[in-house]
Amino acid sequence: MKKIISLILLFSLLSCSNNYTNFHENKDNFDVNKTEIKENLSNFSLSNLREFESIEISATPDKKLLKEIVKKIDEAKARIFVEVYIFTEKDLQKALVRAKKRWIDVKVIMEKNVYKAWNLNKKTSDNFAKNNIETVWASDTNFALTHTKMMIIDDARIISTGNYSYSTFSKNREFFIFVKDEKLLWNLLNIFNADFTYKKEIIYDENLILSPYYTREKFDILLKSAKKSIKMYIQNFGDTDILEILKSKQKEWIDIEIIMPDLKALPANKEEIVELDKAGIKYKLLKSPYIHAKGILVDDKYLYLWSVNMSYYSIEKNREIWLLIKEQKIISKFNEVFSLDFKK
Fold first, then answer.
1. Domains defined along the chain, listed by start
2. Which residues have CB under 8 Å from 44's CB, separation 6+?
3. Which terminus of the chain is less hemmed in, N or C, by CB atoms within 10 Å?
């Protein structure tokens, strides 16, 4: 009996020692990451953004787009990785279940504590567990919320402003970016794997913005670079620093246009709208489609599309993934949609 107790104590000590070592190794690696990020940001320039190997854009509301994504899932050959804030769309769930039955490697990260709807993803999680799909709740220690909207299907990436919900495809103004690019693929895979295993790690890519690690810096660089125009889709507007940059750009006679949801749909923006009025910044509030999209286009040259809201927590505390784009064919399509919405 004494030998057994001794072995148990030894095993416990070794486990604690390994956990202690792993914790400090991860912390050391993270500190190194932060130093490298500072160096990368000091050399960052919008002119150095690369063009992707292949990229397409789609806007919702559009139920056909949902069918296209389902088709891509049904044609998957090796892997489907999903990291998303809300996942309630049933056709996408069914497609993932079918993929798992074909022995595709399916992994899902979802937010457990959705704002004001803490159990919203529970049915989806239970469904995936029943069908042996590897599913984890997003880390609540590394991030305040995981607000990402990302899907990796084999070597293709889908980054969107919208959740995987029925309203995304039927009611909301959202943008979906379909990208094939080897460098982006490996960086997003590294981000996904880190988040799936709760590892605190910073992955840097010139064409990415990763909250909460290097969002504010690139945000400022983009907005302050404007020489002619700024066009923005904003759902939730609550960041004073961004508001001050827009005010200063208005004084430089930069043409600023902003599209937001109607105040009845999102009354939280009321104070910011008063400030926009005072500054003489042009904006439109739309009842339909509901503006859930988040995007910035500067000088018709550089486009940000992302999951993040214009709020302190989204920028500084949440897990968010943004994409920086300079391909003119994507910018032209974005402009078409924006112009139609702004005319409304």
1. 48-208 (3.30.870.10), 210-343 (3.30.870.10)
2. 206, 217, 218, 221
3. N
